[in-house]
Amino acid sequence: MPRTTTEKLVANINYACGSGLADCRAIQEGGPCYSTDIIKVANYAMNAYYYGAGHEDFNCYFDGFGRIVYDDPRLRISLIKQTGSFMKQAGLLEDMIEFEV
Residue limits of the X8 domain (predicted)? Predict the structure, then answer.
């Protein structure tokens, strides 16, 4: 995962939301996805731009900070919750969490 700064994330948000290709109303203050967490806001804006621009890999570059994810990370968390006790008994849970972090 590339390291970034707040300034670079803000630049990516401004680019995505200012392009006219991303609908960023939801992350505006008072919107349903509004957050003070800059990473969550950048994630939303960059994702909205990617979809608004046509789902092409090059639309997810964002100066090297974008990344296309093909699986839903919420499913991984759900899997850990559902199988955690079995995996812990088998000694696998710690390995999986360490790998995922």
Answer: 1-86
Dihedral of CA atoms 6, 39, 19, 25 in degrees, nearest 10, equals -130
Confidence of residue 72 (pLDDT cuts 50, 70, 90): low
Whole-number Å distance between alpha carbons of 86 and 66: 35
**Could you give the dihedral angle defined by the CA atoms of residues 78, 84, 85 and 87, in that order, rounded to the nearest 10 degrees?**
140
Q: CA-CA distance, 3 to 86, in Å (whole number)?
A: 35
What pTM value is reported for the model? 0.63
The dihedral over CA atoms of 82, 83, 88, 93, expressed in degrees to the nearest 10, equals -100
The single-letter DSSP state of residue 35 is: -
